[in-house]
Every structure is written in C-alpha cells, then in structure tokens.
Amino acid sequence: MLKIKNAEFCLLSFLALLTVSTAVEFTFDLADGAEDCFFEEIKRNTTAYLEFQVSAGGQLDVDVTLKNPKGDIIYEQQKATFDSHQFVADLAGVYQACFSNKFSTFSHKFVYVDFQVGEEPALPGVDDHATVLTQMETSSQSIHKSLNDILDAQTHHRLREAQGRKRAEELNERVMWWSCAETAAVLTIGIVQILVLRNFFTDRKPNQQRYSRL
C-alpha cells in the first residue's frame, strides 16, 4: 500500500487494484521549499512504472528522485516538467519516490503522479484457457486495451487543459491589472491637464491687480 510523508494534497483520483497489480494515480499540491515522498512496497522482479507531470505552478518544474530499499538512487530528474520511468525491481522492499520544490521560494506546484506496480490483470477467464482464444475473447481483449489507452489519453488531455486554463487565468489577471494601471494613468493625466489649464485662466495679470486696489 502507498504511504505518504508530509503531503498536503488535493486528491483527484485514486485507483487501486488489489490483485496482481497495484496502480495509484493522483494529483497533489507541493508547497514552496518543500519535499514530499511516497512509498510503495514492491516484490523482487516486479515491473513498476512511474510517471509524473507538473500541471501548474511556477515554471512547471520539479526535482524527482526514485530510490530502492537500500537508499540507492535508480532514477533522478532535476527541474523536470514531465517524464516517465519503467524499471524492474531487483530488490524486494519499500521503494521511495520523492518530489522536491526546495529550489522555489514562493511558488507551489501541482504534480500529477501515476505509480503502477506489476502487470495489469487480464480479463476474467482469459488466463484459464488451455486452448486458443476465440474471436470474441480476442476482440474483448482488444477493446479492453483500447479503453485503457483512452483513459490514459483523457487523463493527459485533462492535465493539458488544466495547464491551459491556469495560464489563461494568469494572463487574464495580468491584463486586468495592466488595464487598471493604464486607466489610472489616463485619469491622472486628465486631472493634471485640467488643473494646469485652469491655472492659466485664473492667474491675474499685474495691471489687473493694480486697478483692483484703486
């Protein structure tokens, strides 16, 4: 099972298959100057797959480190936005995947993680066959694989849509503040011009001041 250390995150989706494979898929909030680690117990000679993508925050970059039960680094990336790594566990034990944002002092990140352990289980009844699969069973397997591919594609499209929405909101905010600054500048210039023109017409000439005294 997955254990989380010092993680304050927004859980979007959590999928667990308690059979041959274990699949964990979620998005969490990585605070500025922080490091969050996730732990997964993997048996020896088991295939595992780690994929991550920074969906929002800062320059969309994060440091990633994957360690085996002995603490040796088997995968490392610095200031990466998206990557995936597949490996075969050479040791049985708890593997550690850490995501670090220590290089950032003010921007937090939203990180999507997909951690799969073991092969995906086949459809019920398919592995029990001692003979060749029928055309219906072969079609079912093909449909099953296509549906999984569609789910992965939808996930990545949602992530890209979230990135685009975040950038659009940031751009909209910058345009709004720039428009406010321009409006304030135009109003200030207009008021200054009115005061200057008014000052021109209200100044009294020296001879007018002399006649007023008489």
What characteristics describe this protein?
214 residues, alpha+beta, five-stranded antiparallel β-sheet, 32% strand, disordered N terminus
Structure description:
This protein is an alpha+beta fold. Helices cover 36% and strands 32% of the residues. The chain has a five-stranded antiparallel sheet, with no helix packed on it. Strands 2-9-4-7 form a four-stranded antiparallel sheet. Strand 5 and strand 6 form a beta hairpin. The radius of gyration is 31 Å and the shape is elongated. The termini are far apart.
Short description:
This protein is of the alpha+beta class. It has two helices and nine strands, in the order E-E-E-E-E-E-E-E-E-H-H.
The share of residues in helices is: 25-40%
Uncertain residue ranges:
1-20
Beta content: 25-35%
What's the overall average pLDDT, rounded?
A: 78
Integer-rounded radius of gyration: 31 Å
Give, in order, the helices and strands. Answer: EEEEEEEEEHH
User: How many β-strands, per DSSP?
Assistant: 9
Name the shape in a single word: elongated
Q: Structural class, from helix and strand content?
A: alpha+beta
Instruction: Give the terminus-to-terminus CA distance.
Output: 102 Å
Q: Quickly count the helices.
A: 2
Specify the biggest β-sheet.
5 strands, antiparallel
Strand order of the largest sheet: 1-3-8-5-6
